[in-house]
Structures are given as structure tokens and as C-alpha cells.
Fold this sequence. Notes:
Elements: H1 3-32, H2 36-44, H3 46-55, H4 61-74, H5 79-105, H6 107-114, H7 123-135, H8 138-154, H9 159-182, H10 188-213, H11 228-245, H12 247-259, H13 265-298, H14 303-325, H15 327-335, H16 342-356, H17 359-374, H18 378-403, H19 405-409, H20 411-429, H21 439-463, H22 472-505
Helix pairs in contact: 1-9, 1-13, 2-7, 2-10, 2-13, 3-8, 4-5, 4-8, 4-11, 5-7, 5-8, 5-11, 6-7, 7-10, 8-10, 9-10, 12-13, 12-18, 13-14, 13-16, 13-17, 14-16, 14-17, 14-21, 15-16, 17-20, 18-20, 21-22
Amino acid sequence: MSLIARTSLVSAATLGSRVLGFVRDAATAAVLGAGPVADALVAALALPLLARRLLAEGAFNLAFIPALALAEERGPGAGPARSLAKAAFILLSGSLLVAAVLAAVFMRQVIGLLAPGFEAGGPRAEVAVLCGRVAVLYLPLSGMAAIFGGIANRSYRVLLPALAPMAANMTVLAVIAALLLQGLMESDTAALAIAAATVAAGVAQLALMMAAARGCPPARFLNAAADWRGGLAVLRAASPALLFAGMSQFRLIIIIALVSAVPGAVAALNYAQRLMDLPLGLVGASAGAVLLPALVREKGEGTAAGRALVAAVAFALPAAAGLAVLAQPIVVTLFQRGSFDAEDARATALFLAVLALSLPLQGLERILAAAASAAGLVGAAEKVALASLALCFGAGAALGAAFGPAGAAGGAAASAGGSILALGALLARRGVLRFDSTLFPAAVGIAGATLAMALAVHFAAAAWPVPEGAGLAAALRLAALIGLGGGVYGACLLPLRALLKRRARA
């Protein structure tokens, strides 16, 4: 299969998984709403969702696959690769198993740390502890799946690993469908069932990854001697990629802790973040697929990172403006049904509008982090990432005290802003980040086109009466407004594109 075919296959499967993810979130909202039970489930699933973000979306492969390739080149047969795979399997899944056991034993303390606003011994805390003790079983499953997925990808087997997230979402959806049929709405039983479904989803992912890796020489590592030094080197090499892959989830965990005292805020914040993940994930994918090869090709000229920043802004800025302006109709159309009522929609839309401010900043952060990794500035980039998380906590706490739970969500924007300033200065000093003469007018033009789009959509939405509920009429209105925004943005960029072409020829 050609590279283009494999890429298209993975992209199609990823898109399908994202769509099913939205359906899963909407179904969860219909069952639990955005009340105390939903708050408890979100806190309970914080660690499994973090593990999924770090291990199930390919970040671990950035270190594991190159190490496998080197091991295959080192010795005769598949012995070195099997030894490396065995050590990585034991170290990764074993450490996650230990973490899961410790988290289960000390789940009350874990929930107290993740959601300090939950009243100790209260309903939210008790449900969170119960669901958390079940959900943490996902952790070792995710580690095992990551190893087998990496082995399969190394052998260019992409179909089953790409379908694994879809299988996970379908597993959870099947359980939610059963809950809806039985009428178990906003109940502790429903929350516990969804937590158990998360573990079942991990089993489904692992089964597909094992099937994908079947027959690959490194996968037959049962009787091989473990290469402990190589396995530890893989885990260390993977840590920067895992850290940056999980930045949005780390920030979400911090903000959840800050808003957890307000009933319903944790669930509303989680639903809003899920809507942010799609555009943010696309920017991250472009950083790995487009920017890194360009940095290698340019051999130190330093302009690829600057061009990538403008390209990220061209996508992320209008996406952020659209999410902010259309927050209410988006949330109503996608989520307002069943137990998720109009008040839940209002709270979620407010969180989404605030989080949208961070979208272009987090997109730029991912571009700069990729540039730093390519330039060998891994240690410095890690320090910037950790400092930005501290800034997220400090800024979120201050903004939350001043403006309430929605203000605390602004800590994500402050954190990402500090991160891009630090990374940008670091890369500029090393000559990795430079801007040619066309980039500034391009950025100004993108900002102007985004403003025109936002104003057009705002006034059109104000002139178009909002349909009742979240039915077909509301969905059609939302689609029309999105189409209008895209048309206005594209039309405004046409003269900018012509101007830049003339300047490039001159």
C-alpha cells in the first residue's frame, strides 16, 4: 500500500473516530446532563482520559518506532527487536499497572486532589471514588495497546490500529444505548456503567492492536530476553512527546480542580473541551506531518517554523472565532437533549467561548514545540511546558476568583500564551524561528478576515430567530451560519493571496 493510501486510510479512520467521539459525548450528556453525577464521572475518568491522550494517539510511537527500527538493524534476525519490545512492554504496562493499583487504593485522595471542591464524603465524591476505582483498570490496557500498536505501525499495518479508537467509542456507545433504553438517567448506576464501559473500550483497543501486530517478528517477544536499557531509553525518549501531546488534558485537569466546588461546572467544562479537541488535534497533526519534514529540508534557514505559525493561525484563528460566536447554538444542537437541559447548555457554551480564546495559542504552542524537538531543544522545551502548567494554575485561580468558573477556564489561554512567548524567544535565539517579509502582512490579513467573518456570523445569527430545542431546524441554522462564516473568510482571503503572490514574484 502506498504512503498516500495509508495516510488517507488513517485520516478517514481518525475522522470517523472523532465523529463517533462527538456522538459518544452527546449521548453521555443525554444520560447524565451536566449535574453532580456527570461531575463525578468526569473526575473519575480524568486519569484514563489522560492515558488515552498520551498513549492512544500516537505520541509514544515517535520514540518507540525509531528504536524498533534501530534494533532491527543491530543484530541478526528479530532478536534485538523482540528484546526491546519485551522490555518496553513490561516497563510501560507494568508501571501503569502499579499506578492503577495505587490509584485504586488511594482513590479518595486522588479525587481530593483532582476535584478538591467535592465535599468529602458527599455524593459527588463517593460516586467519583467508586467510578474511579473501576476506570483506572484502563491504564495498563492502554500501555499494552500502545506497544502492540507501535509494532503494527512499524510493519506498516495501519488499518486495525486506526480503527481501534472507533471500536472504543462504539463500545461505550453500546453501553449508553442500553442505559437510555432502560431509562437510567442521571443515576449513579449509569455513571458506574460508563466507567466500566471505558475499561471495556480499553480491552477492545488492545484486542485490535494485538490482531494488527500478529505475525510481526517483534510481537513474538514472550521468550526473548528483555533489553532493559533499551526499554528505559524508549520511555525517556518518549517523555517530551507525551508531555506536549497531553498539554490540553493537563490544563483541563488543573482547571477542573479549580472549578470543582461549583456543581455542574466540571461536566460543563469537560463537554466544552471535547468541542475544542477536534481543531486543536488537526493543528497538532499538521505540526508532525508538515512542519517536521520542512524543518529537516530547510537545513537551518529558520523560515519553515515562521510559515507554519502563520498556517496554524490561518486555521486556528477563524475556528476559535467561530466557536466563540456560535458557542450557544453549537452546544444546543449537539448536546441539549435528555438530561442535558437549557441551563446546562448555557454553562457549557460560556466555558466554550472562554476556552476558544486559547485555541490559536495552543495551536501555535504545538507548532513551536515541534520546532523545538526538531532542533534538539527537548530539555528546554520540557521546562517551558512545566512552567506553563504552573502558570495555568496561578492564572486560573486568579481569574476564577475574579470572574467565577468561566474565568478560571481563561487560565488555559494565559498558560499557552506564556508558553509561546518562551518557546518563541528560545527558537529565535537559536535561529530556528525567522519571519520573511510576506508573513506579517499575511498574519494581518488573516486577522482581518477572521474579524469580518465573526461580525458577519454574529449579525446573521442575531437576525435569524433561534428555533426551539435542538431539532433539525436548529441544526440547519447552525450549518448555514457556519457556511456563511466559511464563505466570508474565504472571500476576504482571496485578495490577500493575490497580494502575497505579487510580492513573492517581485
